[in-house]
Amino acid sequence: MSLSMAETSAVQDVGTARPPAAHGKWDRASWVRRAPLLPALIFLIVVTQLPFVATLVMSFMKWSAQPDAPGKSFAGFDNFRTVFTTPAYRQAVLTSVEMTVTVVAVSAVLALGIALLLNRAFFGRGIVRTMMIAPFLVVPIAAAVFWGNGILQTGYGLIDGLLGELGVHNAQNISFLTSHPKMAIEIALIWQWTPFMMLILLAGLQSRDPEVMEATAVDGANAWQTFVYVTMPHIRRYFELSVVLGTIFIVQNFDAVQGMTGGLNSTNIPYAVYEVFYSAKDYGVASALGVVVVIGSIIVATFALRVVSSLLSEEDN
Amino acid sequence: MAAIAPTGDRAGTAAPAPVRARRRTGTIVGAVAAWLIGIVFVVPILYMVLTSLHRPQDAQTYPPSWTAQLTWSNYHQLFNTTDGIIVPLLNSAFTSIVSTALVLVLAVPAAYALAVRPVRRWTDAMFFFLSTKMLPMVAGILPIYLFTTKVIHMPDNVFVLVVLYTSMNLPIAVWMMRSFLAEVPPAIIEAASIDGAGTMTIMTRIIAPIATPGAAATALICFIFAWNEQLYAKVLTSVNAQTAPVFVNTLIQTEHSYLGVLSAGATMVSIPVLFAGFAAQDKLVQGLSLGAVK
Q: Which of A151, A213, A290, B222 would disulfide-bridge B139, Cβ 3.0–4.6 Å?
């Protein structure tokens, strides 16, 4: 896609037909155009790309910051071998995948349903919309500690309390955080991210062409037919976008794991990197884990960028 | 579209009475469902606020003390103790506001070079910005930690967070601002320059009025993300530069009743975000979808 864009702009440059003699001047002009872009570009390269280079170098070093550890030395691929052979890290990868897929899938389906409900006029729609957005506007770590301590906590949490009021026997001993730590985190994340996806899908629904909708109604399509043949094709792009953006944010989730379970039977990749660097102080392994995460992200990102670029090219046309 | 078979009664535009009745029932069922779901989503927040207003002995009971007396004592405790929430809130405000200002200073010119007078291969630049957002922040945290503590000797410093939050939000801001600036019709700019308007005039008279609401929405969203950030703040700060999200963690205790104060802290730290979010509500979607959704 970006290739075709480059070709188009090249064609346009030929179209304006600058004589080769004016090459120096043309160069200056293009630098004037580029100048406003450079501070942002340079800043971002220095602050985000250089640390990754450092991570890459450190991933080949034997380097522990524990007080009794030997000094730094070259480790070859030892750190990577540790990353790939330690069951805990493999488990962290699986947990990350499981959490991300579950949260994104459930949130996306819920969000679609809620967006369809909110797209119709009814009494108090504005209030319901505001209530729906609110979870997304609670600070993530605040949401995590309150879900962990106020809602799902054994005994005095809201859920145990409600179950007790409903007459469930021994409800005060139900401990979701220890029996189902991953599910507990997933529920809290679904609660926070469904509103985000819902907002995007609702915007998609509201951008449907009213004339098309009217024609559909005149043609006598029922609600299901309208949904399958008109609404779905229209909001597919919005659906994809909400899934891609949701994935980008949710796969990086650290706060919910740290705030709710402290990683107990629910360590995902970000928490694993944090732990091996912050608690275990093994800088070499932490870096190797970081490198593996980056490579994995690049693979996922390549796919994600394709979705986003199709949106951009449509806008461009 | 073609797949919808015409049902034949297209002459009569008004639906027959049973269909109308069914649609009406459908609307009512939909409205009730929407209200129920909305309530389920907002209950955890209401319960957090309620708990924050309960005395410590009422906040942590089984079953919950629904009708216990309300009090501000948890908030008093948060604000009046020496290592209370005031300094963390100020640190959060400082890092969020300053980094947001820096983001705008860098992003607005960049977006101008990507939208109004696009450089060649502007999409490549756009995707570079976006790709930095897809690399997990946690992967760069160790070198950043070592650099700030061992090389420049600035541990526990708010300015380090300002720089990091600027880099974290810059890609989002560039994408958002580009989409807002792309709404400026090129024909107007052309017409203005034919009429003899200089670059400054075009910027202040044409681009600024159209782009200002977008810049405000961008600022609010960058503020929210910076305010919410906890991982870098947790690793890079301890006492002086501790931000409010990191502080909330410290309210978890094991010895005595803590849930009331914890709820008050979680509520306090979320209030600025709730305000910013509802203020930006109209542009929230366009911003969060990086400008892809209008």
A: A290
